[in-house]
Design goal:
- This protein is mostly helical.
- The chain has one domain.
- About 70% of the residues lie in helices and about 5% in strands.
- It contains four helices and two strands.
- Strands 1-2 form a two-stranded antiparallel sheet.
- The protein is elongated.
- Residues about 140-164 have low confidence and may be disordered.
């Protein structure tokens, strides 16, 4: 139970860094080059850009800190799975923004921020953590006699090579 609490705390701190990146870039874009006065789809495009940057920062933080004990040696596969899980979370956030902005007509920057950075973030975070824990950074079981476990930088850390 303690290990889950530590993992959740680290996930939250990494996510906080990603949130700062996401919100800062999103707002910088919707108040400048991607304002709705200049680009009709500006909020959606801004959210895709800001979330993509946050995804990269979050992968690095989660790979090297939150889930470092179970990260894989095949970083490219892990990165691809992380990106897919993150895109699902982005879809949740974009869906909330789209419903608020286009379906309900709440078009102010404040409404856009509440829809995507409060409601969408909360729902997307739950989806992402579940996918990261159960799929991306799952503890890959080794076959009997398999020696593909390599120690990493600390005694607590191990890198698991997938045999598939």
């Amino acid at each position: 139970m303690r290990a889950l609490f530590v993992q959740l705390t680290r996930f939250g701190l990494v996510g906080l860094v990603g949130l700062v990146i996401d919100v800062a870039v999103f707002n910088a874009l919707i108040f400048t080059a991607l304002s709705t006065e200049q680009v009709h789809e500006g909020p959606i495009i801004a959210k895709i850009i800001s979330t993509s940057l946050a995804i990269v920062a979050n992968w690095l933080g989660n790979r090297h800190w939150t889930f470092r004990a179970v990260r894989r040696a095949q970083w490219w596969r892990e990165g691809l799975e992380f990106a897919v899980a993150s895109l699902v979370g982005m879809g949740v956030s974009l869906g909330c923004l789209w419903v608020s902005h286009y379906a309900l007509g709440f078009t102010s920057p404040l409404a856009d921020n509440i829809a995507t950075n409060v409601v969408g973030l909360g729902l997307g975070t739950a989806v992402r953590f579940t996918l990261y824990r159960l799929w991306v950074f799952k503890n890959v079981p080794l076959a009997p006699g398999d020696t593909h476990v390599k120690p990493a930088h600390t005694a607590e850390t191990r890198v698991v090579e997938s045999t598939s």
